């Protein structure tokens, strides 16, 4: 469960009148990390192994894992840092609150904010900051355009019914667009939560967002196709996954002013859909860093509905001129993610034979070492070909995965019988149905 209280004025005010140091402090007063005291943590704990520990030709190399539950993982598995560097992320615009992690994922490269953090957080300020968030871990081969689908979705938005997503503004944009440009466009809204025609399944704050939409549109179903929940990735062509919806869309819109690095921006571009977001999106975290690569979409110049509608018109009229997937692959994807992590940690430069900055995904020694230890190639490991040892969700499955590594490297003796959630973890395995997180 998240901790702290977000400053709600940041959700709908693009011009906060405070010194930047006070804004940084506000952003860091809320985190979406998970802790032991949350009853749901046993179901929500998420752990990704970026590269595994290896012992090959007399050389031992530590692996890397990242999680929203870094402190819990380290306390639950006291030997984990013998095998892995533990990297924490907050799923929000804050720096992680973790006191025990080796490294922090931050959303963007922001030296000014880093300096502020180091000077005001003496206990945690010395940790390496990696300008990544879990949205950078998009599997660009799973989250990819599906061939043969008609572009029959004018606009897609992937947004929870949360005040910070500004869904009513997106709805009003669709209405204004129809009036101003005389074209009956529709919005497909993927909200990620099941609800019915009577809004059963939504909490009161979510219902309030729908009431705002209803007040603007009167009859929302005449403007919006609601998709309550869908599969992130599915190998079954009959299951409508996120790539299915993105591949049908002409434009993806994000209405937020503040959050972590938004996944839908990355996912849409990876599926070759141009994106639009406010120029002020995450402006204090980014400090001039782009929210998406040039050629991936357009920024909405002003925080108002007409500016949104005009930007949408420009994109819809010219969406075929954009090359979002091509631009995305130049700047993001799992190979880039791996290289940024390994290049930011001197340990690998000093200990990995044949190390070459920016080319770790091609390192011959690391590839041979992973094959020898796990019977899988470096690239297949990176892209989740054996999910039993690359990504686990839920406490029993995480226990099983950590048991596997501890036993393999002699830190723990095998249990009698399989540990909770454990399955055979060698061999090529099967691709997970939901590798993109």
- State which percent range the strand residues make up: 5-15%
Q: Work out the number of β strands.
A: 16
Radius of gyration over C-alpha positions, nearest whole angstrom: 22 Å
> Could you name the ranges where pLDDT drops below 50 across 5 or more consecutive residues?
417-437
* Global structural class: alpha/beta
User: What strand order characterises the main sheet?
Assistant: 9-8-7-6-3-16
Query: How would you describe the shape?
Result: globular
Please summarize the sheet with the most strands.
6 strands, mixed
Mean pLDDT over all positions = 91
Helix coverage percent of residues?
Answer: 25-40%
How many DSSP H or I helices? 18
Tell me what the structure shows.
The chain contains 18 helices and 16 strands. Helix 7 packs parallel to helix 8 (204-217). It has helices spanning 9-12, 20-27, 41-44, 70-76, 80-83, 111-120, 167-181, 204-217, 242-248, 263-270, 283-286, 305-318, 324-331, 334-344, 346-351, 364-374, 378-382, 395-408, and strands spanning 3-4, 30-31, 46-51, 54-56, 59-61, 63-67, 84-88, 103-105, 128-130, 153-158, 187-190, 224-227, 249-253, 275-278, 297-300, 391-393. The chain has a six-stranded mixed sheet, sandwiched between helices. It has a six-stranded parallel sheet with strand order 12-11-10-13-14-15, with helices on both faces. Strands 1-2 form a two-stranded antiparallel sheet. Strand 11 (187-190), helix 8 (204-217) and strand 12 (224-227) form a beta-alpha-beta unit. The two termini are 18 Å apart. Helices cover 35% and strands 14% of the residues. It is an alpha/beta fold and 437 residues long. Mean pLDDT is 91; it is low at 417-437.
